[in-house]
């Protein structure tokens, strides 16, 4: 086994070299897609700045979507949203473990027959995947049933998914195989190159996903979510030996939100203690470990581009780079982790390169993980599905320019269950009440985050003046005059009522109502933005007629309607939220 480890270490060192004796093969006219999905990679802690091959091949040669968001900031729900194009409240996969999440929940909801790889195969695309698929996809349940829709696969399996030096992979219909002692990302790189070889040799258009678990923290699992009492031990990510010496003096960016002197946030977060020097020093080490672990991913990116070029198919291939969710280290006094609605956790990398995509370009149009499945289908000229909760992402310079005026300005953000600290320091157990609904909205003259927690605390941040989300404008601890003009020259109370009505639609929306929620409130189409809704002609509508507000009945771990509070459901008026307009309930005028 040690010999095997040496083999893969050497393979990792050679990751940037050309494949041996490869000759360009004739390609189809249909484009291919290579999707690289990292695990827990941040957009706000500068990780992309430490990845020179991502910079060279993707950022310099593609379009960087700086306002791309996940909708649920934790692994499994986010990945299910990504593969289905549906928000978590519509997949009902809302946690990483059963009973509310994980691979068993994905199966029980019937999604194994109704997600992207299945649709791609139906459209005559070959599909390949290596790396992490979902949580609680294990050495025990990998074949009960097998994940559907893959021409070839080599999955990482629990309880070894997050063990950098003890990965277990499962290829096609074969039994799982342990790679104890080998570096997980290097093992994955060799599997990725093999799958690419198979894809090209098949002479069919293909979709290849590479899902390394870096820079996720290292996790020793004594059991899985299938067991009654699994024990998980978290530690910093482990780099490949060749990268251990890098970035010796690098620290977590010292932004205003890093370990602030005054508490911030709401619910359990505002009760966190300030971290001492020893804790901060450990978090800097944790941060460096993440950057080091990403170096093998960066080499994988270079290896893939080298092979695409050598095969002569690079110009006919879209390459998409993203992560399942973001990450925080020290912001708001938080220990390393995710699961919050703050910008570090929900704003994630998205870079796209390919035919017609602008090179060395950046854009701030709003995009989300709900948009990726529609985007993939549109790229491959496959009809979109009517139940998508997102829309295709504009890719050409002209479509991006048009989207500035026409695209939705909001992202739905939602979460259920607890938030775990992933370093060596304890976290406050009140984090079990980490359920919330939120929205992120950007438009001309405003840049806002609004949330309602399951304990019914509210948050509102003006991210134009407070980009680090330190001053909650709706905090009951502060003496803020809600009647004063603040944003867009309207009172905070007027603004908050509009945002709450919008969130009430989004927390239970389906399909295009998630993309165009203002139409649910104003079916005549006269309101399409927050700025439109703030017109004084709608004051009575929002302030007097709509008495139902977003709130929770209780804090629970999963998506349970009895706890969710009022729902906006035009298909079921008896259980829906009753809005009134011109004296009529909403279901008579929608």
UniProtKB/TrEMBL annotation:
InterPro entries: Alkaline_phosphatase_core_sf, Arylsulfatase, Sulfatase_CS, Sulfatase_N. It catalyses: an aryl sulfate + H2O = a phenol + sulfate + H(+). CDD domains: G6S (cd16147). GO terms for biological process: phenol-containing compound metabolic process. The conversion to 3-oxoalanine (also known as C-formylglycine, FGly), of a serine or cysteine residue in prokaryotes and of a cysteine residue in eukaryotes, is critical for catalytic activity. Keywords: Glycoprotein, Hydrolase, Signal. The modification 3-oxoalanine (Cys) is found at residue 75. Its EC number is 3.1.6.1. The keyword Cell cycle does not apply. Residues 1-22 form the signal peptide. Residues 31-382 form the Sulfatase N-terminal domain. One of its GO terms (molecular function) is glycosaminoglycan binding. Belongs to the sulfatase family. This is Arylsulfatase. The lineage of its organism: Eukaryota, Fungi, Dikarya, Ascomycota, Pezizomycotina.
């Amino acid at each position: 086994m040690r010999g095997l480890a040496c083999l893969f270490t050497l393979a990792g060192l050679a990751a940037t070299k050309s494949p041996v004796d490869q000759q360009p093969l004739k390609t189809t006219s249909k484009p291919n897609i290579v999707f690289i999905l990292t695990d827990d990679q941040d957009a706000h802690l500068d990780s992309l700045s430490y990845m020179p091959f991502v910079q060279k091949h993707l950022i310099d040669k593609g379009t960087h979507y700086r306002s791309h968001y996940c909708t649920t900031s934790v692994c499994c729900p986010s990945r299910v949203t990504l593969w289905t194009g549906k928000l978590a409240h519509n997949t009902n996969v809302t946690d990483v473990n059963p009973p509310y999440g994980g691979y068993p929940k994905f199966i029980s909801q019937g999604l194994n027959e109704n997600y992207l790889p299945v649709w791609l195969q139906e459209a005559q695309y070959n599909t390949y995947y290596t790396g992490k698929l979902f949580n609680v996809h294990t050495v025990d349940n990998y074949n009960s049933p097998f994940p559907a829709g893959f021409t070839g696969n080599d999955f990482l399996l629990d309880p070894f998914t997050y063990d950098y030096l003890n990965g277990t992979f499962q290829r096609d219909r074969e039994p799982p195989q342990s790679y104890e002692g080998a570096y997980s990302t290097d093992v994955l790189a060799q599997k990725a190159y093999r799958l690419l070889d198979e894809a090209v040799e098949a002479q069919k258009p293909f979709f290849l996903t590479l899902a390394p678990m870096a820079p996720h923290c290292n996790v020793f699992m004594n059991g899985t979510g299938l067991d009654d009492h699994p024990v998980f031990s978290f530690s910093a990510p482990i780099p490949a030996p060749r990268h251990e010496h890098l970035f010796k003096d690098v620290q977590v960016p010292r932004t205003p939100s890093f370990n602030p002197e005054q508490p911030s946030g709401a619910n359990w977060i505002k009760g966190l203690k300030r971290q001492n020097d020893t804790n901060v020093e450990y978090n800097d080490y944790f941060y460096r470990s993440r950057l080091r672990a990403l170096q093998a991913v960066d080499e994988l990116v270079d290896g893939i581009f080298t092979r695409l070029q050598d095969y002569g198919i690079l110009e006919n291939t879209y390459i998409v780079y993203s992560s399942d969710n973001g990450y925080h280290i020290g912001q708001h006094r938080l220990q390393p982790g995710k699961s919050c609605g703050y910008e570090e956790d929900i704003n994630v990398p998205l870079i796209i390169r390919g035919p017609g995509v602008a090179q060395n370009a950046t854009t701030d149009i709003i995009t989300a993980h709900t948009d990726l499945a529609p985007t993939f289908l549109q790229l491959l000229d496959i009809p979109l599905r009517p139940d998508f909760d997102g829309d295709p992402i504009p890719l050409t310079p002209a479509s991006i320019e048009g989207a500035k005026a026409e695209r939705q300005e909001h992202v739905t953000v939602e979460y259920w269950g607890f938030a775990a600290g992933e370093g060596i320091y304890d976290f406050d157990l009140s984090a079990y009440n980490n359920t919330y609904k939120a929205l992120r909205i950007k438009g001309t003259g405003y840049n806002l985050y609004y949330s309602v927690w399951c304990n019914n605390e509210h948050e509102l941040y003006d991210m134009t003046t407070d980009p680090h989300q330190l001053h909650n404008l709706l905090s009951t601890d502060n003496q803020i005059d809600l009647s004063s003009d603040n944003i867009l020259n309207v009172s905070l109370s007027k603004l908050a009522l509009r945002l709450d009505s919008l969130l009430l639609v989004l927390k239970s929306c389906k399909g295009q109502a998630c993309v165009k929620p203002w139409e649910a409130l104003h079916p005549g189409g006269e309101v399409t933005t927050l700025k439109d809704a703030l017109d004084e002609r709608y004051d009575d509508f929002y302030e007097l007629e709509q008495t139902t507000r977003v709130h929770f009945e209780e804090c629970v771990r999963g998506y349970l309607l009895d706890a969710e509070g009022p729902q906006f459901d035009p298909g079921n008026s008896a259980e829906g939220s009753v809005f009134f307009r011109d004296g009529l309930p909403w279901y008579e005028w929608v």
